[in-house]
Amino acid sequence: MNTKKKGFFRYENGMVIILTLVFGFVMFDRFALTNLAPFVNPELGLNNSQFGFIMSAFAFAWAISGFIGCLTSDLRRQKKKFLAVFVLLFSICSLATGFAVGFISLLLIRIVMGLFEGPVLPLNQSFMLVQSTPSRRGFNMGVMTTSGVGLISSLLGPIIVVALATAIGWRATFFLTIIPGLILVLLILKYLIEPDMESFASTITPEQKEKVKFTDVLKNRNVIVTCIYSIFIIGWYVTMLSFSPLFLTVVKGLSPTHMSFIMSALGAGAILWGMVVPSLSDRFGRKPIIIIFSLITLFAPLGLLFTPASSPVLMAVCCFIGWCGAGIFPVFEAAVPTESVNPRFASSAVATVQLAGELIGAVGFVAIAGILADAFGLSAVMWLCAGLMIVGFFVAFGIYETAPLVLERRKAKSGAAAK
What we know:
By secondary structure, this protein is mainly α. It has a single domain (11-197, 212-413), classed as Growth Hormone, Chain: A, CATH 1.20.1250. The protein is 80% helix and 0% strand. The protein has helices at residues 11-35, 37-44, 48-76, 79-96, 103-117, 120-131, 137-168, 170-175, 178-191, 197-201, 214-219, 221-251, 256-284, 286-296, 299-306, 312-322, 329-340, 346-376, 379-395, 404-418. The longest helix has 32 residues, at 137-168. The radius of gyration is 21 Å and the shape is globular.
């Protein structure tokens, strides 16, 4: 395969498109259950606490497998094969969700599915890190982790799965999800090239070429801070996506169809912000962009809380603005940790940040949200989401800058001042 092609059809663009489809479908499968909760929960007799526990258990499995699977791939350097296998297996589990008959069976299916989905993002980021041009790295990561997810999972996902469930039932809807999974496996095997981590490592600075152990990655300040930050933003993200459909249908009294269109506004926002936020971070720095947009995320939960049900368009606008937080993900979860550690451990650094966010943020806060919803009503979940991002805003001040262009400008200014 000629990786030197110029223009749109060069390898880099094809790699970005395929990995964007892969991760978009991962999140489509993960949150299809939340969009279908108004159909699934009554039939299976699930309450809010049980539903929250299912989502938490999925997140726990996702976090553990993401860390272990990617550490193994770092050691064996077989990222392409690992990625294809995981995509195939989680697609089978998505199909199996349609066979659930109660709380226990649904719980077990989703746990296994989480085990296979967890390693996908860190593996994708390894391709992005090595095979992206430096000036496009943040942009590429943003397209893959946020814009692609926004288009496939958040914008089209709610509309498609709700429409299908209304027409053919929620079980048949899950049965159909294996089809795109099989197509993606073929694309991965046919088109993607194994990322050459060793060659990429030869381009780093002499200080980074010193022998590095994985334990050194865990001591890196940016890895530590982004791990803490991930707890709150992933908790916000997963809790919002998990309970907003129920909040809109139960508290606001909207129909599933109207709910699906408001949820799709999150996807529209993710598409825009997924390109804008990482690009701004490339130009102005990772740290200030994370801080600023952490506050703007408050539009989403507070907008849903205070906007009357008679103004669904205004709800959608608030969701669109507030979902700028989705654009932060490729910055804090990929760009900052991978730019802060030895490239050999890039995917493990991403997996470590993901582990902290999923294990504590998604697992803990989604379970808490379910308990709060049963005790105080679903409105309490929106307040929880707002509180999580307020804390995340303050945590972000601990990050040190890693954006290559910003560091180059600083170095140039320092050199000029020295003269």
